[in-house]
Design a protein that fits this description.
The chain has 457 residues and is an alpha/beta fold. Helix 12 packs across helix 13. The chain starts with a strand and ends in a 10-residue tail after the last strand.
């Protein structure tokens, strides 16, 4: 069993900073702005070869009467409650610099009701000059206490020892509560990233695919800030979905937090096997959607396009809209377009089917002779023009350089004079002949040198 730990505390006490330090990644966004983290964020780390599962949560706050309609705040709190339920024990983080607050007592009262083992972590000790501020926290009556500074990495080794020892003390009955207890060793893991503008339905699609309200959804653009990873398990395959923050136009990015969220979304494209571009079909394809598509195309990763909110389109207009969309996306050859309604769970199986198709394509291996025959066939159908020097451009043979993305090396003479248009023609020809319409291909042209030609000095 893998012990599960949840990080609990008020906003800006250092939960996400500790989370990132433990998992050795920048998975959670960090900011002095309150409640930067909204969803549950998950990660793994090891102590003495023992694996631990850790959950970062939103800061807990009081609920005032006028805030009962604050949807995001309420849902963030609900996500925290779910995380506590999933955990084996709790790390309760407080701020040594600010000292004890009424909210700290309020949070402690809430988590004690859950009957979970609690480790008190006093963060930001580097900012404290008076020991009295730290001693006050001992009034909580928590036995296991660690004093740390995440920024300066002080006390972290002691904290790791405490976590390790506590995990050993947990009974088998407690560990059964770990919601990962049924995790199997899957043969295949496919990483999928959902990307698009704000409020196009990325989070709703993932929630419906995994059949769980795992990510907060709202009509308020920018609800998702962190890159949230969840998984769906099937027969011998695990689909690992990453929900990303919506990407706005540059002139509409108001805060530094928005810029960091969107930069993180862009970086996630390279870290996943497949990208799914989500577009709101009710609004239509706009310049920002085309900009996102162009960005994904340039990354040379596997991708397809999903048009969400298809239920909002009347039957009489559906064919016309499909024609318009195909025309707008005519610059992308062989791309798969899927129309769905996340709200009514329509078309979700098509997404899984397309992921399976792309994965099967990525497994294909092609021999040099097979690739060379296809190149020869392409040249016969559409002959190469003469080079700038007046000498003939010839393509001799091709071979596979690497996979994911597919990298094909083509040897010949005068290859540096091959036009950009002809290179595109070869790429699309190869996709068709190799029967991999969803797989991006990178072509590298290399001039073959005749070893029998002596150079004159």
């Amino acid at each position: 069993m893998i012990p599960t730990i949840v990080l609990i505390g008020r906003s800006n006490v250092g939960k996400s900073s500790l989370f990132n330090l433990l998992i050795k990644s920048n998975s959670s966004l960090i900011s002095n702005k309150k409640q930067t983290t909204r969803d549950r964020n998950y990660g793994f780390f090891k102590i003495k070869q023992q694996e631990f599962y850790i959950i970062d949560t939103s800061g807990i706050d009081y609920f005032k009467k006028k805030e009962k309609k604050n949807f995001i705040k309420i849902e963030s709190y609900n996500q925290t409650k779910i995380a506590i339920k999933e955990s084996d024990f709790i790390i309760f983080i407080v701020d040594a610099y600010e000292g004890i607050t009424e909210l700290d007592f309020y949070i402690l009262k809430k988590i004690r009701r859950k009957n979970k083992f609690i480790i008190l972590v006093i963060n930001k000790i580097d900012k404290v000059h008076k020991e009295e501020q730290i001693i006050d926290f001992y009034n909580f009556g928590i036995k296991k206490i660690c004093k740390i500074s995440v920024v300066h990495k002080k006390g972290i080794s002691h904290l790791l020892n405490v976590i390790y020892n506590v995990s050993k003390q947990l009974t088998k009955e407690d560990k059964i509560k770990n919601f990962l207890c049924n995790t199997l060793d899957y043969f295949i893991k496919v990483k999928i990233c959902l990307i698009g503008k704000p409020n196009v339905g990325k989070s709703s699609i993932i929630n419906n695919l995994i059949n769980d309200y795992r990510i907060i959804t709202s009509s308020i653009p920018g609800t998702t800030r962190d890159a949230i990873t969840v998984s769906l398990k099937g027969k011998n395959i695990e689909y690992i979905f990453t929900d990303t923050a919506g990407i706005r136009k540059r002139n509409k990015r108001k805060t530094l937090l928005e810029k960091l969220s969107e930069k993180k979304s862009i970086n996630m494209i390279k870290k996943n096997n497949i990208s799914i571009i989500i577009i709101d079909v009710n609004i239509g394809i706009q310049d920002q959607d085309l900009s996102i598509i162009n960005m994904v195309v340039k990354s040379r990763c596997f991708f397809f396009i999903v048009l969400n909110k298809w239920d909002l389109i009347s039957k009489g207009k559906k064919n016309e809209i499909k024609k318009n969309i195909n025309y707008q996306l005519r610059f992308i050859k062989n791309i798969k377009i899927i129309y769905i309604s996340a709200l009514f769970r329509q078309g979700l199986k098509k997404i899984i089917n397309q992921i399976n198709i792309i994965y099967q394509e990525s497994l294909k291996v092609f021999s040099s002779s097979f690739l060379t025959n296809i190149i020869n066939k392409a040249v016969i159908q559409h002959p190469l023009s003469m080079g700038v020097t007046g000498k003939a451009i010839r393509l001799k043979y091709a071979h596979l350089g690497k996979k994911n993305p597919l990298f094909i090396i083509i040897h010949g003479t005068q290859t540096k004079y091959i036009s950009r248009t002809y290179k595109k023609y070869l790429m699309h020809f190869l996709q068709r002949e190799l029967q991999i319409p969803n797989t991006p291909i990178q072509l590298f042209f290399k001039d073959s040198v005749n070893p029998y030609i002596k150079t004159i000095n």
